[in-house]
Amino acid sequence: MPCIWPRSSSLVTGLRRFGPPWGLGALLFVGWGMSLEAKFRSLLFQARFHRCLPCAEGLSSRRMTISAHQMHQPMLRNRRHPPLFQANLLRMQPGRVLLLGKLGYGALRLLLARLCQLHRRRDRVYFAMKPSLAPPPSCLPPEEPVEGPSSWPPPPLSSDDLLNTSLIVGNKKEKKAKRYAKGVRKRRETQAATAAQAKTKEELMDDILGELIDNDLSFGDLMLYVFDPIYKQGQMRWHGFFRCTGLATKILNLWVSRENSETARAEVDAWAVDYVAERARAEAKEITKLKALQTGATVNGDYVDGFSMHKMHDFLHTHAKTAMKIFDAFATSTRNVTSSLPARIAKRALILTSTVLTLLGEYSYKNNFSRRIMALYLYASGAQHQTISVLNHLGISESYQNLVKKAHFLVNRRSHDVDLDDPRPATPSSTPMESDTPYVPPDPLALGEAISAIRSVRMGTLRQLSGSMRDMARAVAATGLYAASSVTPVPVYSVRF
Questions:
Q1: I want to staple 293 with a disulfide (CB 3.0 to 4.6 A). Which of 180, 199, 203, 369 is the partner?
Q2: Please, what is the end-to-end C-alpha distance for the chain in angstroms?
Q3: What pLDDT score does 455 carry?
Q4: Positions of the region Disordered (predicted)?
Q5: How many whole angstroms separate alpha carbon 346 and alpha carbon 184?
């Protein structure tokens, strides 16, 4: 039976191309296969020609004799395998064993040939880039032909031809330099493509502007045609300009930049200031229409207790965004933005709210909510007449006269026909009163309504609040002395800042 394994010289020559790890592993595998084949050949010979052992499966069943000279040959003295191991191996079909060995060896030969071919290709590319490192032709082993079917299709390629790129070899520094060089080359290619595209776009824009000039048109005419609603270019205006977020802001910044002319910047600045002023005026008008800062004629405990500077701050931030943003920028420096403490931020918000409330009071005298509350707080804190008058001139508080003035009863005697000094109804001089007419005392509820009407119109803030508290006390007292469960406790009001 011929040996199926190659010669040692050709095997070592093929395995030497893989390098130490793979070559050593493949060499050990081939050696193990050769040893196993020798064992199978020895056992097969014993199974065929030895008298004492049974015939192997797949062979002839007749007994065969051998000579004494053949019995004492070294091959038959198989001392490495015990009889039990020989019997187990002989139960297998030797033909199948040899077939599997041949198939495995054939696959290994194809794998070795393919790897050798790839290794030779890599050597050619590497030595082509670095000829100084190439060995002399006498040292290179002869190339063996690749065994395999010639009808196999070529492998698919991602490009039209093979890209003979060099492998990354060397130490870490050389690899880093190689990657950096590749990145620089790719970045230069990208920049060159971008520059070419920008140049093409610039040439197209110049052609368009030239067409406008040739037809006695200006760029302003084109902008008016696009942005004026009478020309109905809404699709172009949206898709060509406003759809790109930030484009309008960029153009406005270019209009007010130093690169633009001084005349153009002055025109844009004037328009921007007028527009912001109009927005602030519209916000003041809206707040006045809401009547959130107007007191009217009702001053009671709920009126005082419902005042809060924090609520006013949130209200102004909601309905006066433009004005609050302008004054906030006017009161905040760059240092305050980066290094302000929470207490400092709260104080600045309080000052900002007070300023805007004062300005809204100047826009309309009806927006006097904060002024009346401030006057009550100053009076309750013991401030003198002169202090309240000074703060009134500054627009922070209402006047001292409006705070403490009394009601003018003479005006309302004609409407209600009630004399507050005399409980009896007044008798007109033109209509004499009969002597036999009995005296009817005035209705207390009607008298109270008349007094309340006089208070709401003519009394000062302090007297209105005092009268409201007295009315609440009378309502509580009217429920009865022993009806403690139904008595509503009188709340204590305070002003929160």
A1: 369
A2: 112
A3: 44
A4: 137-156, 417-440
A5: 53
Q: With pLDDT > 90 as the criterion, what percentage of the chain qualifies? A: 29
Distance, in Å, from the CA atom of 356 to the CA atom of 35, rounded to the nearest integer, reads 102
Q: Give CA–CA dist 320/287, Å, rounded.
A: 8
Contact 374, 390 (CB under 8 A): no
- Quick count: other Cβ atoms within 10 Å of Cβ 273? 10
Please answer whether residues 177 and 43 qualify as being in contact, where contact means their C-beta atoms are separated by less than 8 angstroms: no
Q: What tokens were used for 282? A: 């519209």
Looking at the DSSP bridge assignments, the partners of residue 496 are: 308
Tokens 């196999």 sit on residue: 152
- Phi, psi (5° rounding) for residue 273? -65, -45
**Residue 182's pLDDT band (boundaries 50, 70, 90)?**
very high
Model pLDDT for residues 307-333, shown as the tens digit of each residue: 888 999 999 999 999 999 999 999 888
Closest CA to 365 of 296, 300, 310, 422: 296
Region at 246 (left for phi over 0; alpha for psi -120 to 50; beta for the rest): left
How many whole angstroms separate alpha carbon 147 and alpha carbon 124?
21
